[in-house]
Predict the structure of 2-C-methyl-D-erythritol 4-phosphate cytidylyltransferase.
Amino acid sequence: MNKPTTIAAVVPAAGVGARMGLNHPKQYLKIGDKTVLEHTLGKLAQVPQLTKLYVAVSETDGYFDELDLSGLAVSRVTGGQERSDSVLNALLAMQSTAPDWVLVHDAARPLVEINDITNLIEQCLTHQEGGILASKVKDTIKRGTSHSEETVPRATLWQALTPQFFPYHQLLNALQQAQQNNAQITDEASAVELAGQPVRLVSGRSDNIKITTPEDYALASFLMSQQSKARSL
Ligand SMILES: Nc1ccn([C@@H]2O[C@H](COP(=O)(O)OP(=O)(O)OP(=O)(O)O)[C@@H](O)[C@H]2O)c(=O)n1
Ligand SMILES: C[C@](O)(CO)[C@H](O)COP(=O)(O)O
C-alpha cells in the first residue's frame, strides 16, 4: 500500500508591516473578534491534508503567545530578516520530521478560500510539480515612472498569491541556493524559478488579497464579513 503524502503548512508572520504604518504588526490587527493571524490559521486548520502548521514570528514578538490557538496543531518558529528567511527557518525547524510537501501561506492573507487551497494541492499532486495560486491581471498595465512609456501586453501576466506549494526538499534547496546567491526573492516561486524548475500557475480568487496598506485592511474587513454571512446562510 502507498504511504500517504504528508503536507505541512508554513505561515510567515514575522513581518513588521511597514506599509501599514501602525505601531504593531498588521497580522495582529483585529477583524471582528479575531486577529488577522487567527483568521488565517483558522482557514488552514480546515484543510484536512495539512497535518501541522509552523508559524514564523519575530523573536521579539510578544503577541503570538497571547493568542488562543487551542485545538490547532501549531508550532512557533523564529522568523528572519526577509520573508524568505522566515520560510527557510521554518523548513529547517521541521527537518527531522520533514513532510513530503510544504504549503506556504502569508499570515496577511486571511481571505483565502479552502476550495482554492485544496484545488492547488490536488493539481500539484496530480502533475507532481510545485505551483502557486495566482490571479490573471485584469487591468491595463502601464510601464513608466512619472509618465506612461508603454502599455504592457497582459495576456500572460499573473499576480502571484499564496498559498505556494512545493515538495519539501525542492523548496529547501531552492531557498538555500537563492540565499547563497544573494538573490532578491519575494515569494517561494521565484526561488524555484531561479533554480530552473517548473512552477504551475493555478488560478485562484482575486479577493484572496494581502493586507498591505490601510485600504486593504478596510477591504479585507468587508470581505471577511461577507464570507461569514455566506457561511451562516
Ligand atoms: N521578515 C519577514 C517579512 C515578512 N514576513 C511575512 O510575509 C508575509 C507577506 O509579507 P508583507 O506583506 O511584505 O509583510 P510585511 O513585511 O510585514 O510588510 P511590509 O513589507 O509593509 O513591512 C506577511 O505575512 C509577513 O508577516 C515574514 O514572515 N518575515
Ligand atoms: C508572497 C507574496 O504575497 C506573493 O504576492 C508577496 O510576494 C509578498 O511580498 P511583497 O513584498 O508584498 O511582494
